[in-house]
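User: For my dataset I need records formatted as: sequence, then structure tokens, nothing else. Please produce one.
Assistant:
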Amino acid sequence: MPLSVNTSVSALQALGTKQSVTANNIANSGSKEFKKSTTVLEEGSTGAVRAKTQPVNTPGTMINQPDGSLEELSNVDLGQELAGMIPTQRSYEANLKALQTNGEMEDSVIDLIG
């Protein structure tokens, strides 16, 4: 597999992981004491893209309960999570387009040869 194809495929996998982590954060945003995770994309030695996911242990919002106790909510910021999905989606689309263009170029070369 050519390097550019391998890079695009690994990027699609990593971006899929990033979107899954974001979806999990959003789905659990209403759960008490839930700690969100974040995903960082890294380049490997071969040029492949890897997703590194780690928990974010910042405290959630504290609210007073009727009995006077404090309760910690999740540390998920829905606005931040939703806004972060936009560039991830655009990157996914760009990598899909790169794969499509690569396939079209290969088809053109085959047509020229054959």
